Amino acid sequence: MIWIQVGVAIAVVLVAVLWLRLHALLALLGAGLLVAAMTPQYDLQQFAQQQIEAEKWTPRAAEAFVASGPASRLASAFGSTAGNVGILIAMASIIGVCLLESGAAQTIIDRALAVVGPRRAPEALMCSSFLLGIPVFFDTVFYLMVPLARTLRRKLGGDYVLFILAILAGGSLAHSLIPPTPGPLQVADTLQIDVATLMLTGLAVCACSSVVSLAIARLINRLVTVPLRPLVETDGNAGQAENGDSAEDSPRPPLLWSLLPIVLPVLLIGIGTAYRMLVGKHPLVEFISDKNVALGISAVAALLLLSAMSRSDPDSRAKRNRAVQRALAGGGTIILITAAGGAFGAMLRQAGIATVIGQLVQGGSGVSVLVIAFLVTAAIRTIQGSATVAMITAAGLLQDLAAGDTLPFHPVYLALAIGAGSKPISWMTDSGFWVICKMSGMTEGEGLRTVTPMMTAMGVVALFFTILGATLFPM
């Protein structure tokens, strides 16, 4: 019965997104409601009993859950997910917009290029996109950086594919492996992993993977040549990319101030974790290192940075308010999709999918579990296109594997394997694939020969370093 439910749910998502062209929010909610309606009473009772045994629910709460209807269970799971990640995503959106509006993002890119020089431009592009990919959504990072890739191609006369893929090597990996982007956040919440732990391990795996991925980008660059074509689009981003002008002449903040909103949450959360391990809990340290508070403090720092850089503008307050409004509008959509994905995953768990998958991998090595997590996520990503939806769905399916002592290593490695699996396979179903092709001037065929193998290789490399970390540092 469970596999019929899974098959029907996946079919609903695919038909809704690919054929009917519905928004992912509606597709995920529809699939979740269908799974909830198809779940027998016996499976609900089993799930409730598991929660009682895990001391998560009281018998009264379990009884109320079993008696509730499908729509009520879906709404409850939707609200729970939104409550867990909503503030984080909203704050991350504000940080990202403020970095762009204040010129801080451009400062980071320009300083990186100035330090290494044009001949090491791929390394500068990779490092810049890596840093910006932590608080800023990857599509925005690519929009910001592709004009530099086009300018470098004009100046140096070649290696255009390398410049484009270098942006992917840093920013795209950070988007899937390091909070506070939505995918890693929801995976951490579903698997009940400390965000600080995922941040630190994600930084390590992402840094190593980006370096190797850049070497792969150099290989692809030798095999495929893409000419620098004029962009016919007339929108602002396209025109900017065509002209190679990625910044205005307005003053920009110093590098240290530009990096502060990115580094601050990592420092605050990391300090809290270290203090807890070495000394113990302290109310003040626990407060400032809370993930919501840390991201909130960083958002305030980003807003102050934006205000400082626009203080000579008589319209500075209105500009700041517009930036926040734009950030929350974009972040609100992401929160809704993430919550819908979390609710969909919760309905599958209540139907018993996690138990079935746990039985399938029972007796396998820890490495095999990571490979299965990678393949499950990659399959969902390839079929429906969204890396975030793939991560959220896979985390819901594999949640039981992270519980208890079933794994020979810390469950954070399961989260990283899921993040790595969200990279393959970027092709026609992936909106990011079209963004990259459109903004770089690639044809579909060129994208399939460059972007698709690059993203696949990035995922495999990230899985390798995840397995290596789980083997050497199981924690």
UniProtKB/TrEMBL annotation:
Its main location: membrane. Belongs to the GntP permease family. One of its GO terms (molecular function) is gluconate transmembrane transporter activity. Pfam families: GntP_permease. The gene is ygbN. One of its GO terms (cellular component) is plasma membrane. The chain crosses the membrane at residues 6-36, 85-109, 129-148, 160-178, 198-220, 255-275, 287-306, 327-348, 360-380, 451-473. It is a multi-pass membrane protein. The keyword Cell membrane applies. Keywords: Cell membrane, Membrane, Transmembrane, Transmembrane helix, Transport. It is found in: Cell membrane. The keyword Cell membrane applies. This is Inner membrane permease YgbN.
